[in-house]
Amino acid sequence: MRFRRPDWTTIFIAAVAVLMGVLAYRQGGSELVLRGLQIGGKTLLDVTILLLAAFLVAGLTQVLVPRDVIERWLGVGSGWRGIFLACLAGALMPGGPYVYYPIAGGLLKSGASLGVLVAFVTAKNLWSVSRLPYEFALLGPDLTLLRYALTFIFPPLIGFLAEALFGGWLARIRTAAA
Fold first, then answer.
1. Which pTM was predicted?
2. Neighbouring C-beta atoms of residue 141, cutoff 10 Å
């Protein structure tokens, strides 16, 4: 296992955390800083099992599903089939970003195309079936169904556009994600 040097995102988030810690200290002293650390630690504990499960699914997908199967069903040559499978998987995927991004990363490393990955993430955000009960309860059926109807075309369309316009970047994206 190799550890990577921190990237700019990590450095930025760490700097924001330090800055917020300094601001909390100036506003309420060490008591406020400790309260923030406790809340952050509780949140970490609450999602740790889910994070572990998501990363295990991502890793096990890479070792259990042969690369040629991923490439055939979700790779560059999969066309409409790959895009629609990704949209369906994104819509049905439960959990938040800490669940579906590790899985998308695993698919990226296993040979999925850029369009498939973009369609998967977009469908997860626009078509999430697990969110339907909340939307129906809080926004009502009319607004919920209208939102789904208006966004229905976007995940496959954006997946195709990503593949057509930026598919040539896939090798560079894989290298950056490795």
1. 0.78
2. 10
